[in-house]
Write a structure and sequence with these properties.
There is one protein chain. By secondary structure, the chain is an alpha+beta fold. The protein has a domain of 99 residues: 2-Layer Sandwich (TolA/TonB C-terminal domain). It has five helices and five strands, in the order ααβααββαββ. Strands 1, 2, 3, 4 and 5 form a five-stranded mixed sheet that branches. Strand 2 and strand 3 form a beta hairpin. The termini are far apart. 10% of the residues are buried.
């Protein structure tokens, strides 16, 4: 005996309904998936846009923070060196503008000057030499008697020496020049009371002497003269 299916258990009739439900479910799932993908794309786009904006802001801030580099100074042109050439004729005299000195010429010139100076110095030394001993001694005009007469007449006894009863011999040293004049007179021996000063005055006032001679030539001669001071 064949078993009969109940109408409730017969699924063939509901096959179309189940198919429609499945299609609707699949379509819903597809739509949901599509929406999810769109939202992900939007979120990623926003995130990329925000990241690029932040990077641009950081670049702008970095550029603002960096100080401006000083502009390089313009290079000044170097002065041009010009050389002027002066044409000089063959006969013209050339001057040493650089002050270069020829050592050889200077050495010869200095040596010549030194030799000349030495010769002149020797001559001056010979002329300035003062003789103490000579062949012919200097003398007062008229001799010793005229000299003592001059001294006795010219000397004025100092008042201080007279009051203190000062007597004695003052010695005066002087030089008789080649022309007979008296120079370099000085007191060699003093007795005080102004006697030496008075004797010095009288000697300096003497007339020219006859100069001393050596080898027949007048020479400078040193002479020592005693001057006597006595109270009468």
């Amino acid at each position: 005996m064949e078993a009969k299916k109940s109408e409730k258990a017969d699924l063939e009739k509901k096959k179309g309904l189940f198919l429609e439900i499945g299609l609707v479910t699949i379509l819903a799932l597809v739509l949901v998936a599509f929406n999810l993908r769109s939202s992900d794309k939007d979120d990623s786009g926003l995130m990329m846009q925000q990241a690029s904006t932040e990077m641009e802001e950081e670049i702008i801030q970095t550029e603002e923070e960096q100080p401006d580099e000083p502009e390089p100074e313009p290079e000044q042109p170097e002065p041009e060196v010009t050389t002027e050439l002066e044409v000089v004729e063959n006969d013209a005299e050339l001057t040493n503008e650089l002050g270069i000195v020829d050592a050889g010429d200077n050495a010869n010139k200095e040596q010549t000057e030194v030799v000349i100076a030495d010769v002149s110095a020797e001559e001056e030394a010979a002329e300035e030499e003062i003789f103490v001993f000579v062949e012919e001694f200097p003398s007062y005009p008229g001799g010793d008697e005229a000299l003592y007469a001059y001294l006795g007449k010219s000397i004025q006894y100092p008042e201080l020496a007279r009051e203190n009863n000062i007597t004695g011999t003052v010695v005066i040293k002087f030089v008789v020049e080649k022309d007979g004049s008296i120079t370099k007179a000085s007191i060699l021996r003093e007795i005080g009371g102004g006697c030496g000063k008075e004797a010095l005055r009288v000697v300096n006032a003497m007339p020219k002497w006859k100069p001393g001679k050596q080898s027949g030539k007048a020479v400078r001669t040193e002479f020592t003269l005693p001057v006597q001071f006595e109270l009468h």
